[in-house]
Amino acid sequence: IVLLDILPLSLGVETRGGLFTKIIDRNSTIPLRNTLTFTTVVDNQSSVEVHILQGEREVAEGNRSLGKFEMIGIPPGPRGAAQIELTFEVDASGILSVSAQEKNTGRQQELRVTPSSGLSPDEIERLMFEASNSAETDRRTKELIGLRNKLDSLIRNTQRTFLEFGSSLSSEEKQAGSRTLDDAEAAAKSQNFDEIQRVVKSVEKLGAQLTKVMLNPSANSSEN
Hints:
Layout: E1 11-15, E2 19-24, E3 32-39, E4 47-54, E5 64-72, E6 83-90, E7 96-102, E8 108-113, H1 121-133, H2 135-165, H3 171-187, H4 193-215, H5 217-223
Antiparallel strand pairs: 1-2, 1-4, 3-6, 4-5, 6-7, 7-8
Helix pairs in contact: 2-3, 2-4, 3-4, 4-5
């Protein structure tokens, strides 16, 4: 038989809202290489911070930080336009190399770390226990962050459409639309899941109304 080396804990990065996205799962046999593609979250974003983490918690701050580096020189453009390919490679000695490449320009940056350094079996067991013990709390936090991220995207997209096509709405509809977007901006900072969910539905309703105007702009104008 052959004894295979495995990773004691998952490896990944911090993503939008403070979540931990795994790129290599624990108990994976090394050497190993895996790649995921990420994108920008705001318009004209010129850089991204790559925060490398080790652990099993859903929330980034609950995991062990292995290092950070900044990917710079991203071409300006709308959010989601840039494609950043993150590659995690662990060699047979347990050395982790993390590279980030912007696919449009080919620009690349890299960091090397030792993921297992300083971790005893007891510390690994403690981190696993914390992850198990915090699973339900982390699940709720992840759902809240996911809903906030959804609301943020809805707000940005609906604001753009509202600015372009809102003039085709009646005065009352425009005022109601402005209130909906203002409420949404405030709710995006809330810790109340139900409140954010309610506002998401309101913004989606406004978006559907604006879509009708986009498809048939003369209809609403003739009713005013």
